[in-house]
Each structure stands twice: as C-alpha cells, then as structure tokens.
Amino acid sequence: MAMTMRKGLARGIAAARRRISNSREVEKERSEVKPTNLFSAINQALHIALETDPRAYVFGEDVRFGGVFRCTTGLADRFGKARVFNTPLCEQGIAGFAIGLAAMGNRAIAEIQFADYIYPAFDQIVNEAAKYRYRSGNQFNCGGLTIRTPYGAVGHGGHYHSQSPEAFFCHVPGLKVVIPRSPRQAKGLLLSSIRDPNPVVFFEPKWLYRLAVEDVPEHDYMLPLSEAEVIRPGSDITLVGWGAQLSIMEQACENASKDGISCELIDLRTLIPWDKETVEASVKKTGRLLISHEAPLTGGFGAEISAAIAEHCFLRLEAPVARICGLDTPFPLVYEPFYMPTKNKILDAIKATVNY
C-alpha cells in the first residue's frame, strides 16, 4: 500500500511538473508575440534573413537610412554597409545586379522603391530572372532572388505611386508572386520568399504599413507559399482577394451577414502559383464567386481566377462570377474614392450574386 502511495505521489509530482513546464512554454510563446505593424514586421524579417544567412544582402534606393517607408531601418547599422547598401536610381541596374548576385549563390533582396517604378526593371525580371534556370537546363539559376516593392493605393499617391502591377508578373513562367494581407503574414511569407529556390516578386501593400497592427511572433518562422487561407468560412458565396483588399472584403462580409448571407473569404496570398484547389473546393460548396482587387478590371489577375473557375466549376455555379476591381483608367488622385473597390461596391455585388 505504501508503495502504491509512493507511485501515486510520484505520478502526481510528474504531472505537476509537466503542467508547470507547459505553462512556462505558453508564457514563453506569449512573451515572444507582440503587437507589430506591417513595416516593422517586414523589418524583423529582413533582420532575421541577414542574421541567419551570411550570404544575404539588402540593397536598393535609400535603404541604408531605412527607405521611404522605413522597412530597412537599422539594418545597415547592424550588418554593415557591405551587406546593406544604396544603389543608383536605376531600377534596371538594381534588378540586373540582383540577378548576378543571386546567380553566384547569394540571397539577393532587392528593393524597388515603389511598384510604379518597377517597369524599367521589367526586362531584367521577365527575360533574365524568370528564364535563368530554364535556359540552362537547370545547370545554373538565380533562385536566391527576392524583389520587394510597395504597391497599391496609399490615399494620396496619384497615378505614379499607387499602381498594382501584379498581373504583369503573373503572366511570366519562372517567377513567384506573393502579396501579404497583414503584419504576421508579411513576416512569414517574406522569409519563405527569401529562402525559396525560385525568384520571387514580393508586393507589400503600402496602405497597411502603419495602419495594420496585429500580434506577430518575434522569432523566426515561415508561412507556406502557394497555399491560400480560408480566413472566414461560409456557405452562400466565396470571396477571393489579396493584400490590403482583404480588410475591405471582410467588412463587406460582416455587413452581408446581417442580411443572412454567409460569405466564405479566402486570402490567396500567393498569386503565382495560385492555390486553385482551395478556391475550387470553396466554389463547389457555395456555388458563387466574387473576386476583388485594386488593379484595373481588364487583364487583372481576377480574370484568370474567373476563367479557371468557369472551366472547372461550371456545373456548380449558381450565378456568373463577379469581379469588383479598379477602373480601366490611370490611377486618379482626386477621384480615388470612385476608383477603388470599396466595401459598399463589394456588398452590392454580394447581394446581386446571391440573389441572381
């Protein structure tokens, strides 16, 4: 009996120790997570990338003092000007240098100051970076290349600082295109992009740099590329978007729920290669699809999603696929509220599609 009591006591002590240990792990996890805005999450990811890989480099226009949006603040002080450095105001040169650096086995993290300025680098990205592996039969590549650039509306940017050119790069085999919706997503997806064995164009929604705040783990972590995330389950209609548009779409979903409409909201996260399976499974369940993005309607990536769903889910669709996007005009300054796909525009389209 005494032995039984001793065994019971021992088990009790062991269980208590496990509880204490588990509680300490929980507290440790909590202590490693703190409210962070999007540009700070990007900054954390860049610090980790440089710290964990001695062959990683960050460069671009004005990155040494932190850049226009301060995403590279503190990097030069910590890692030195040999690994974090300014470049001439020449986007074609930035991209060309990045390709060469990556081809030598380095991690080249290039910044294009605004996505609107990426067009001079288009030839280097499309004709060189995207085809480097293919043209050599995989004998050499520039897979260590990541090009970061702020994109989308900012509230006062006009036609030279507010464009969303993601669809141009989605048309190019050999590239990956990634767009996060929030700080936590931005950090994990950027680290995955930097460590991916393929060149990645990483668009950062500048509207959210300071506005978006959420709990972000301070440690090193990665989120999978090419996996969409269902951030709101529903049964009546599927909504698909990316980047800053997700918060607008979520507001529309909330309003729709007051009218008894159940919306399933999906963040695509990676546009190329995009997660067709998740979107198709959702549409086969709901029978309806709405896509929203800031880029112009014609030729936007929403058209590719619409075509794929019409091809694979035609017999399950209860209504035509709806697209709420930017207008087919240059991005305006004074008329930005008319141009943008707003909550009310999306809500009207939800109701029209469900009641079709």
CA-CA gap between termini: 75 Å
CATH topology of the largest domain: Rossmann fold
- State mean pLDDT (0 to 100 scale): 93
- Across the major sheet, the strand order is 3-2-4-5-7-6-12
H/E series, N to C? HEHEHEHEHHEHEHEHEEEHEEHEHEHH
Proportion of strand residues? 15-25%
Note poorly predicted spans.
Answer: 1-10, 12-30
Fraction of residues in H or I helices: 40-55%
What is the number of helical segments per DSSP (H or I, 4+ residues)?
A: 14
What features would you describe in this structure?
- With 356 residues, this protein is of the alpha/beta class.
- It folds into two domains: 34-217, 3-Layer(aba) Sandwich (Rossmann fold); 229-354, Rossmann fold.
- Helix content is 42%, strand content 19%.
- The protein is built from 14 helices and 14 strands.
- Strands 3-2-4-5-7-6-12 form a seven-stranded mixed sheet, with helices on both faces. The protein has a five-stranded mixed sheet with strand order 9-11-10-13-14, with helices on both faces. A two-stranded antiparallel ribbon has the order 1-8.
- Helix 8 (183-195) links the parallel strand 6 (176-178) and strand 7 (200-205).
- The radius of gyration is 23 Å and the shape is globular.
- The termini are far apart.
- Mean pLDDT is 93; it is low at 1-10 and 12-30.
- It comes from Apostasia shenzhenica.
